[in-house]
Specification:
With 552 residues, this protein is of the alpha/beta class. The protein is built from 17 helices and 27 strands. Strand 12, helix 11 and strand 13 form a beta-alpha-beta unit. Helix 1 runs parallel beside helix 9, helix 4 packs across helix 5 and helix 11 packs across helix 12.
Length: 552
């Protein structure tokens, strides 16, 4: 069969942009986007994206140029996930809650030719650009406004802006022949990591990789045709775990929210009959802590990832009527590549055990080639005993092309045929992976490696604890000891003391894992996607100096 080779009919590049083209035919009159009083159908969304892609091209944007977006979960943000790649450009969504200095750093690194800016981020972009060196090329700016904007905007260009988003849609060519990738490994997105380690990296994904992870995520979560999807996960965070494109593949209705809290989420679920939503564990925690204790009229599927969720939080969320699925992925994988695929026999176990099983990250998704936990010294798989720690490694079609302008960083994590995640985990006897920590968050106390995540899971079972994070504090005898940072639930009548929390942990953990220090905080430092910034807490613990605890 050596004479059989790839040919144009069987090797057309994979791209998730085709999902929108198909949706315009299959789901033409079905709602694609609902936002306040705005409702679009899939046919209208396709036409709007074609026109926008045409207008982007008319500004001189060429294949593989970077186009950035600073916007919340609004229709324009969703449309630009298609329109920018349809122009041949590379989509770069920027976390709009970052400070101006960081946004300036990212823009100078990405060097976009064009930036779309939501009206609420006007001052942010102005300050970020003011930090540019004098001779550094500045991008064109396009202003996004909508029916939430309380200000009547002038029609003339203003404050360095080149034009308005809706004008570009209006004036675009609906017959535009969108720019298809020449090769499925052509870049489609440039995403910056969330900054939990204080040094964001630019992650580049291909059309092929995003196609695979989008389809893979739909299959693993068993998403049916025409779901009603509530956007509580920021689209700027790994492109909403690629469900931006995935919803077009199944003709879903995208319920967009400019901002949200628990009350808004519950109201939207009821108003739109929401079936699916995603969120980091912090969102689950938010839903569990509504003062009036709401429960759902109908089950809602919620997919959580981003940090290992404590079993106690999963238990509370499901008791409200949510059906929680749990997965694992990174910005470098474009979405979830490990999911806790549920077994029917687990339905019969007690609720607490069910939550414990669901807290594990799980097994590789159908589209991933391999997932393993290896010993970093021997490079061999660790024992499947649920105890032996190793680094989580991955390989598969949706792993990033590499870090933008960072060949050294790319080579450090892409080696020996694997992508090294930097996460520490164990493999259970049944083949299910469980993340125990980030490699930098493992605490070495008296020569013992202990998982901060395990300690946090116990802290979350304390009835007064709302959030918890555990990091290493220097210790003159043990080397390091666990230091817990916690904030308490609102309305707690009897606030626990440091001694109370330590005694609570001592009853549930081996002595070497019990926090030696407990710090109560009004709020834990987080990224805008809800990840606790442990590097900030590590610095705080370090600043406390070496602890002088008993050697017993």
């Amino acid at each position: 069969m050596d004479e059989l080779k790839p040919t144009p009919p069987n090797s057309s590049p994979l791209t998730p942009i085709g999902f929108l083209e198909r949706a315009a035919t299959v789901y033409s009159d079905c709602p694609s986007i609902i936002y306040n009083s705005t409702i679009y159908t899939w046919s209208q969304t396709y036409q709007r994206c074609l026109k926008m892609a045409s207008s982007i091209s008319s500004l001189g944007i060429k294949r593989n140029d970077v186009v950035s977006v600073l916007a919340p979960n609004i229709p324009a943000m969703y449309e630009l996930h298609f329109a920018i790649p349809m122009s041949g450009a590379v989509l770069n969504t920027i976390n709009l809650r970052l400070d101006p200095r960081t946004v300036s750093v990212l823009l100078r690194h990405a060097q976009p030719k064009l930036v779309f800016v939501d009206y609420q981020s006007e001052s942010l972009i102005a300050e970020a650009l003011s930090l540019f060196p004098v001779n550094f090329n500045r991008p064109l700016l396009i202003f996004i406004t909508d029916d939430s904007d309380p200000i009547e905007r002038p029609r003339s260009f203003r404050n360095g802006f080149h034009g308005y988003y809706e004008d570009m849609v209006l004036n675009g060519d609906s017959d535009f022949n969108w720019v298809r990738p020449e090769n499925e490994f052509d870049p489609i997105t440039l995403n910056y990591t969330s900054g939990t380690t204080s040094s964001p990296k630019g992650v580049v994904h291909s059309h092929r990789g995003i196609f695979i992870v989008s389809m893979d995520s739909l299959i693993e979560w068993s998403v049916p045709k025409e779901p009603v999807y509530l956007w509580t996960l920021p689209m700027f965070h790994a492109n909403g775990w690629s469900y931006t494109w995935g919803m077009a593949a199944v003709g879903g209705t995208n319920i967009c929210l400019r901002k949200f809290d628990a009350a808004i989420i519950y109201d939207a679920i009821r108003k739109y009959d929401v079936t699916h939503m995603c969120g980091a564990p912090v969102v689950l925690n938010m839903l569990c802590n509504v003062p009036d204790g709401r429960t759902l009229e109908k089950p809602v599927n919620i997919l959580t990832a981003g940090a290992p969720p404590p079993a106690a939080v999963l238990f509370r969320t499901e008791s409200l009527g949510f059906v929680v699925s749990h997965g694992y992925g990174l910005t470098e994988t474009g979405g979830l590549v490990v999911c806790c695929s549920w077994k029917k026999k687990w339905d019969r176990v007690p609720a607490a055990e069910k939550a414990r099983l669901k807290a594990r990250q799980g097994v590789k998704t159908p589209g991933m080639a391999e997932v393993d936990v290896i010993d970093p010294e021997t490079l061999k798989s660790v024992s499947r005993d649920g105890k032996s720690l190793g680094e989580v490694v991955l390989r598969g079609g949706c792993v990033m092309l590499g870090y933008f302008k960072d060949p050294e960083g790319t080579s450090k994590c892409m080696k020996n045929g694997w992508f090294y995640t930097g996460d520490v985990g164990v493999m259970h006897p049944d083949g299910y992976l469980e993340i125990k920590d980030r490699s930098k968050d493992v605490i070495i106390s008296g020569g013992e490696n202990l998982s901060s995540v395990e300690v946090e899971s116990v802290l979350y079972t304390h009835p007064a604890v709302n959030e918890a994070a555990v990091v290493a504090r220097p210790d003159e005898f043990w080397g390091e000891t666990p230091c817990a940072f916690v904030n308490l639930r609102e309305g707690v009548k009897e606030k626990p003391t440091e001694k109370d929390v330590i005694e609570f942990c001592r009853a549930k953990l081996p002595r070497y894992m019990v926090p030696k220090t407990v710090v109560f905080m009004e709020e834990l430092p987080k990224t805008s996607t809800g990840k606790i910034q442990k590097f900030v807490l590590r610095e705080m613990a370090k600043a406390m100096g070496s602890s002088k605890m008993s050697r017993l």
